[in-house]
Amino acid sequence: MQAPARIAVVRILRYGVCMSNELVTGVCILRLNGKSIRSMEGASLDMGGFERKARQADGITIGFSRKPVESMVKAELVHTSLTDLDAINDLNDGTLVFECDSGVVFTLANVFSVKPPSLKGGDSSAVSVEFASPSKAVRTS
Asked: Global pTM?
C-alpha cells in the first residue's frame, strides 16, 4: 500500500499540481484590425520565433543553429453576405488579435494574408484563411 503513495508524490513533484479550477482554452476569437472576423471552432496559432537545429561535429552535438520562423494563424470563418473576402485577400500590414476564451490574448503585428481565402458552401459553409506575421506573436494578457 505504501508504494502507490510514493508514486503519487513523485508525480506531483515532477509535473506540478493540476488545479481543478484552471480555465482551459476552447473557443478563440479573431479580431482583424479591431473587428471580429467570426472565426469558427478550431483556429490555430503558431507562435513564431526561432526554429532550432542541432549541430554536430566530431561525433557529438556541439550546439545549435537557428532561423527565424514567422507566426501563423489558420482559421475557418463563418461566411455571410457581409464577409469581405477581397479585404482579407488584400490584407497587408494589419493587426490580428487571437483572443482565447481562457483569458489569454496574443497580438500579431504586420499581419498579411498568406494565400487567397477559400470559400466552401453547403451545410459546412466556411472560409479558410491563413495569416502570417514576420514577428513572434506577443502575449498581451
From this structure: 0.78
